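We treat protein structure as text, and this decision shapes the records that our systems exchange. The tokens are whole numbers drawn from a learned vocabulary of local backbone shapes. One such record is reproduced below, unchanged from the form in which we store it:
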Amino acid sequence: MPLKAVILIGGPQKGTRFRPLSFEVPKPLFPVAGVPMVQHHIEACAKVPGMKEILLMGFYQPNEALSRFLVSAQQEFKVPIRYLQEYAALGTGGGIYHFRDQILSGGAEAFFVLNADVCSEFPLQEMLEFRQQHGDMHSFVILGTTANRTQALNYGCIVANTGTQEVQHYVEKPSTFVSEIINCGIYLFTPAIFQHIGEVFQRNQQELALEESSNGWQRAEVIRLEQDVFTALAGSGKLYVYKTDGFWSQIKSAGSAIYASRLYLNQYSKSHPERLAQNKPGGPVIRGNVYIHPTASIDSTAVDHTCVLNTIVGWDSTIGRWARVEGTPSDPNPNDPYAKIDSETLFRDGRLTPSITILGCSVTIPAEVVILNSIVLPHKELSRSYKNQIIL
């Protein structure tokens, strides 16, 4: 069956929780477990039999870094990969509706839609097989997972028939408890989805025509799959949920990227053992699942002197001897198998929330200082210790 995949990469204003890292590299290209975040999605899509094309969709200005990545990914995964630039932020449904002709070209019978800011085992083949067993060839599938009752309120919540897994009710970020099954931001659609998105577009146009103060058709194209489409499709017999027990997490901030790296690194022992560092004579001692970038040179005594914990260090930064650079991890509760990462805010009650430490590019940390729970913008040369500060 001819298939396509669409990866929604968003745009520059969405990367605020990744600053200062997103100053230097677009969030979808931020390295997670050694490769650009979106490469994990591309690799999973390329493995699905019948995958004819992978489309990245967003409103980043095409730049050299993105173009270079697309060329190398095409060569590595042997599948056509293109970037489609939206003229504005059109929402999760508006973008695919705007480019529906590009998605349907070549006779794709079904297509995946994946949000770039999630990490997952991406059970795409399982979703295809599930659709064949549930519903008909015109039904749609949402990937779901289980969250705890409190954190479920932060996601799209799905109420499904326990026998057929048909979605009977869908609420995005409800104010009270609805369900422990949450939306993972990974979908399997057929071309029939565009009829339902089109109905939302027509309704938006009609509503905007009645509002003299609106700016017209441009806003009508802003469509959200979750609130505008899934809510209406629930209970119609056309929408199903495939529940995964595999790992899944959002990547909304730099802190959650560290957690996502750990999830992928744990998977590498099976999927990519060649990416994991190995103990070698005369080399550093490797503890746990570790990725070392090819350009990095690690001394055999690297466990001595300097300590860096729960920190992201930008390119071309240096950390002096006997320095300690440390952050507070934002990992989910390890004692709750259904716990997810909480959405982090940079400030709470006017104070910087303790979080991981981030050193922007070209930052110099001198010897014998402590940097704790701080964010250091690029091109800074520090001279003393800091705690719970943003260093401009």
Summary: The chain has a mean pLDDT of 88.
